[in-house]
Amino acid sequence: MDAQPEAAQDRQPPGGPTGAALDRRAELSEFLRTRRARLKPEDVGLPEFGRHRRVPGLRREELAQLAGVSVAYYTRLEQGNGRNVSAEVLDAIARALRLSDAEHNHLTHLAKPKAHKKKPSARPQQVRGALRQLIDSLDGIPAYITGRRSDILVWNRMAAAVFGDWSELPAQERNWARMVFLRPEYRDLYIDWDQKAADIVSYLRMDAGCHPDDPRLSALVGELSVKSEEFRRLWATHDVKEKSHGVKRMRHPLVGDLTLSFEAFPLPDDHEQTLVTYHAEPGSPSAEALRLLASWGTDAARARTATP
Hints:
elongated; alpha+beta
């Protein structure tokens, strides 16, 4: 195994965990407001009454009409009071707001948090030994497993060759959000950095909806908000997304441009962990570049990390 980090992302910082819990009511309020603001009456088949609107998007009364609820009821919900709201009403509001499946799930997590959910454990996030062996056996395929808060838990040598040797980083720095927003080499790596940054923030938003009382997540959001103007802007959009599949374009310092397709597989026995793999189209320049990186082995990872 060329890159097998210890599962230490959840070790407590000096003085214990930091960061107050996210305000679930405020999160619900802002999420509904931003989803309503992106819609226009003509988008949902409503007539446009009046040329001047004080706020962008649909008015509350228009949204309530579409959802089939009273204006007062919807107003209470948008003010963060999701107490006793039914799944049927949430479904109606989701349809009215044209929410994606991920957004619908996020709304449900915010409005009706499961009473039995406990705060995330302070124990380190653990990856089963068989999964470590699996990703190590993926010869020529960059692969890694992420956990809560976009922490990178384990990876194989091809992932190190493509993304950098994460074993050189302190455990708490092995986090996609930290790397994308705070490390310049990742801004250089991703040709479509803006999209990568937006995706990372959307994943964190989903995590926040499921675990608003996670102090480490709150601390991460607070730190990034202070250190990165781009993060603050993206966090304020309240966009959410679930990891799935797609294509990433990168400019690798050793082999040049790479176009890689990725697939994300939530683990069946731990939905907070996701296996992510990358591959190139057979016969493409990117496939040849991956073959070169694989032949260089650990030397490629070291050179990738050392390259300014």
